[in-house]
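Bench notes, bay 3.
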Amino acid sequence: MQLRCLSQTEITEKQSGKRPLTGAASSKGTEDNVMSTETTNISAAQVKELRERSGAPMMDCKHALTEAKGDLENAMVVLRKKGVATAAKKAARVTSEGAVGHYIHAGGKIGVLVEINCESDFVARTDDFKDLLKDVAMHIAAADPKFVRREDVTPEDFEKEKDIYRAQAAATGKPAPVVEKIVEGKMGKFYEEVCLLDQPFVKEPGITVSQLIASKVGKLGENISVKRFARFKVGDVGETIAISKPQQDQKPE
């Protein structure tokens, strides 16, 4: 009978009670390890590109890319969700600083003034905050919102629109429960048309103005809110002046 000396690895495995992996099992384990390494192997170039596109901090970009398995577009979505979550946490904090921005369009035919508030004068002086002012003012010039938030819509305007939609739906002859569902859907669309924060951002329709602001909250670390705006157009009989109602739950840090 021929005797074979055991290798040190085999001796260790016998002592620990483990059986050595062979064949397909060993190969599969190796593949899993490679795949695991690949999914978390984020290059510096990817992080740099995401940071340039989003303006988010470097580590946030790296974590977002890791969560998105290296997909840049999905990483942008992760960052936006993080910004919205951060904005929700900071929404109750007092915004007593800020700045007034303006935008003049179409050869001086349309003009906008907008006041956006933040928590500190330091943030109000940053380029990111100034860029937000310009973007929101330009958006107001293009989209012509009538209110800042849906909470600012007056009961009279709300009921007026609801009655119009209800009459339109009832004219189709559909049952009352169906009519009310139609009205509810149209009121959601109404908010998108007249409320600044609910409107799709004109420069990037895939996000709302609210989400745009939330991304800045996530980056700058302070609560940011639109207080009021005014829009003037040459030849119009009136002008749009919208002032957001004070949020009663705001409190200092």
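Next record in the batch:
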Amino acid sequence: MPFQGGKSPDLAFSRVLFPPGRPDAGRYAFRPVVKEDLALLQVWLRTPEVIRWWGKPEEQAALLREDLDEPAMVMQIVSFDGKPFAYAQHYAVHTWPQAHFESLPPGSRAIDAFIGEPDMLGKGHGSVFLRLLAGQLRHEGAPVVAIDPDIQNHRARRAYKRAGFRGDTEVMTDSGPAALMIFEG
């Protein structure tokens, strides 16, 4: 079922969307960002890994504040065992036209995400929660789900591949060169 009003339902869903052998998939939950989460997001935006790939914390915090009132941007806090550790947002690719998404079919979604808790990096959490999210978006009707990490962000690109994203086409974005990766799961 496609998204209605730009918002997605709570994504604490079945393990069916994740391959067997990962029993911890049900330990992840997604919930909408609320105004009270902005302080936590600002802390995360100041971590070195997030600054490296997302840029100036003040600018990004201002964009997140603006997006809270934008129904076409679905903003989520990702938790593991009830502890928030990451941020994910997704949107219809043709809502904010970008040249590297032009050829994607109508209804396609794009994901942007980061892990805000440094102690959760490098442990496989990114690939798990992104596979869950992308699988849910496909289940809800998106023909494809795209993600476009910085071409130099090798850690993210490896995680996205483990999550089921394919392709490595270099594209130019407003932020610089990126790798266009597609999930058709």
